[in-house]
Amino acid sequence: MNWQAPHVVVRSGEGAPRSAKNRVQEGTARFVGAALVALSCAWLPCVSVAGSLTQAPYGVTADGHPVTRYTLTNAHGLSVSFLSYGGVISELRTPDRHGRMANIVLGFASLADYEKFNGNIHFGALIGRYANRIANGRFTLDGQTWTLPVNDPPNTLHGGPSSLDAKVWTVKPVESPHGASAELSYVSPDGENGFPGTLTTQVTYTLTDDDVFRIDYRASTDKPTVVNLTNHSYFNLAGEGSGSIERQTIQIAASRYTPTDSTSIPTGELASVAGTPMDLRKPTAIGERLRSSFRQLVYAHGFDQNWVLDAARQESNAADKSGENALPRFAARAVDPASGRVLELYTTQPGLQFYTANGLNGSVVGTSGKTYRQGDAFALEAEHFPDSPNQPAFPSTVLRPGETFHEVTEWRFRTQGAAGK
């Protein structure tokens, strides 16, 4: 993707080095509208470009890789901050019904804490090469069995240890007619964490002036492989560090789910949610179901299951089967009645993992200096089904040379009044 060097707007007092001016390419073009451009923090400490993007150094990893923090901001002041480390969404600031802004995602206050703790928690991270679980750390593809490192015994979870969530991604600005936008890319070498093929992944973050945060996932390979990508943000619509989300409501547009065994591996059944605590087709206070004796909730210590989304994948052009023009459809809605914040999730993915932060136990300190406990947040992970490589009846996650994996997820934000209007 081609782009011209931007017209740089340096905030008063930031003291950009004079030499930076000489590094901007000749023919610099002023940015038009809400299009996004940026410069590397390697030579410019902190830059604001066209009011859409800011960036600043965020430290250096233990193995010496510089990390940058980026912030996308729209015309209404809604902002999304993310790191080049793991593509982590570290802050997401939205207004309540009175216009008061708050960060609504959990995270850590330092890069060191992300490196130390996030391999197990995955706050805000891009997940792959295979999101969710693969049974017993192995799968068979085209007659060959591939063995993966087991990091959630006896299974492989979220691509294994030190997967995409722990890599430093390359970030570049991209021009978009929809709003501020940046592309993150990472090349996973053949055999990384046991997966076949060199996987080239591009993820585009876009924040629109309609208060929509869009995530475009694309991946290609040079050998047959399996791929499943998602984002693992933890939401608390009352605000990060606000405590329990039990009074917040959830609605999931799914009449079936994939039951699991005690190790969270699907049995292969697509079971009806009717008459069970898994029926979230109508808005339901999260706390109403968390302490149910329903076996699936006992296994997971709360919600941590995959729902089979009802809406079929829709194409804007019926003749186009590439997925490039797939239309995200409604999957879930979460509401905090106290603040009025509403999050709606639209996606092209076939499944949604709803997780109530069952693994948080007060042992980590978050962004605002408060400890996080079980039930302090929820995750909505739009993705393919768990263990699909070993489940032939599930939608395929096989990617072959010449094909492109492409999925889209949108988080749409708004507020409602005290009466739910």
TrEMBL record:
EC number(s) stated in the UniProt entry for this protein: 5.1.3.3
InterPro entries in the cross-refs: Ald1_epimerase_CS, Aldose_1-epimerase, Aldose_1/G6P_1-epimerase, Gal_mutarotase_sf_dom, Galactose_mutarotase-like, GH-type_carb-bd
GO molecular function, one term: aldose 1-epimerase activity
Disordered: region residues: 1-21
EC main group: isomerase
PROSITE patterns hit by this protein: ALDOSE_1_EPIMERASE
Catalysed reactions, semicolon-separated: alpha-D-glucose = beta-D-glucose
Pfam family name, one: Aldose_epim
SUPFAM superfamilies assigned to the protein according to its UniProt record, in alphabetical order: Galactose mutarotase-like (SSF74650)
Family: Belongs to the aldose epimerase family.
Protein name stated in the entry: Aldose 1-epimerase
Species this protein is from: Paraburkholderia graminis
